[in-house]
Amino acid sequence: MAERLQKVMAHDGIASRRKSEKIIQSGRVKVNGKTITTLGTKVNPHKDEIEVDDVPLDKEEPVYFLFYKPRQVISSVSDNKNRKTVVDFFSDVSERIYPVGRLDYDTSGVLLLTNDGDFDNLLTHPRYEVSKTYVARVKGVLSNDDFKKLRTGVIVNGNKTTVDHSKLVQINSKTDTSIINVTLHEGKNHEVKNIFKAIDHPVTKLKRISYGFLTLHKLRAGQWRPLKKFEVDKLKEMAKKQLKNG
């Protein structure tokens, strides 16, 4: 049965559908020896020979991992500056995994990795976003008006952005900093940092402590564990429910 090339690539764990489309357009994909750059090209995944960067697609079983990303690690499969990446911590995993979304280089915490492109697309598409909670150390002490702005929305890059929940955890008068827990479901780059910057309380340290119902329980920085089947199923349900409510 014929399917769109980017869908087949996503199913086989190359990347999400959106990322697969970019890979196709860049001329990195061959079907039966012919370079394909046209989106929407139909292929038969059981008969056609598909190569990405001259490497044939392998039929891998989907795998899913929860990782405690340390700071100063790149959320990517490679880095042109030879910095450490998240996949460097998975040397014992044979599947071609990649991160679901990203965390900034200097941000630590919960990060998911998989080779399931549809799962990646479901969790990272703006219409499906699952809520995530961060603990942020910010400069200064937030006023009631600052917390009101977080609830009602601040302008970030020309768009109004709100948080689902925010809570003051601690104030350090000596260093003039505050510890804030903040939950949001959007996943734009530098979102948490940009939100606090917009209210004049820049972030000095950031950690993602939960992804939906998943936490860092019993994991130390640099450690990971496979997700259980019920956890994968529940994440999919949460994402689809978010789409329905949206």
TrEMBL record:
<protein>
    <recommendedName>
        <fullName>Pseudouridine synthase</fullName>
        <ecNumber>5.4.99.-</ecNumber>
    </recommendedName>
</protein>
<dbReference type="InterPro" id="IPR018496">
    <property type="entry name" value="PsdUridine_synth_RsuA/RluB_CS"/>
</dbReference>
<feature type="domain" description="RNA-binding S4">
    <location>
        <begin position="3"/>
        <end position="61"/>
    </location>
</feature>
<dbReference type="InterPro" id="IPR042092">
    <property type="entry name" value="PsdUridine_s_RsuA/RluB/E/F_cat"/>
</dbReference>
<dbReference type="GO" id="GO:0120159">
    <property type="term" value="F:rRNA pseudouridine synthase activity"/>
</dbReference>
<dbReference type="InterPro" id="IPR006145">
    <property type="entry name" value="PsdUridine_synth_RsuA/RluA"/>
</dbReference>
<dbReference type="InterPro" id="IPR020094">
    <property type="entry name" value="TruA/RsuA/RluB/E/F_N"/>
</dbReference>
<dbReference type="InterPro" id="IPR002942">
    <property type="entry name" value="S4_RNA-bd"/>
</dbReference>
<keyword id="KW-0694">RNA-binding</keyword>
<dbReference type="InterPro" id="IPR036986">
    <property type="entry name" value="S4_RNA-bd_sf"/>
</dbReference>
<dbReference type="InterPro" id="IPR050343">
    <property type="entry name" value="RsuA_PseudoU_synthase"/>
</dbReference>
<dbReference type="InterPro" id="IPR000748">
    <property type="entry name" value="PsdUridine_synth_RsuA/RluB/E/F"/>
</dbReference>
<dbReference type="Pfam" id="PF00849">
    <property type="entry name" value="PseudoU_synth_2"/>
</dbReference>
<dbReference type="GO" id="GO:0000455">
    <property type="term" value="P:enzyme-directed rRNA pseudouridine synthesis"/>
</dbReference>
<dbReference type="GO" id="GO:0005829">
    <property type="term" value="C:cytosol"/>
</dbReference>
<comment type="similarity">
    <text>Belongs to the pseudouridine synthase RsuA family.</text>
</comment>
<dbReference type="Pfam" id="PF01479">
    <property type="entry name" value="S4"/>
</dbReference>
<keyword id="KW-0413">Isomerase</keyword>
<dbReference type="InterPro" id="IPR020103">
    <property type="entry name" value="PsdUridine_synth_cat_dom_sf"/>
</dbReference>
<dbReference type="GO" id="GO:0003723">
    <property type="term" value="F:RNA binding"/>
</dbReference>
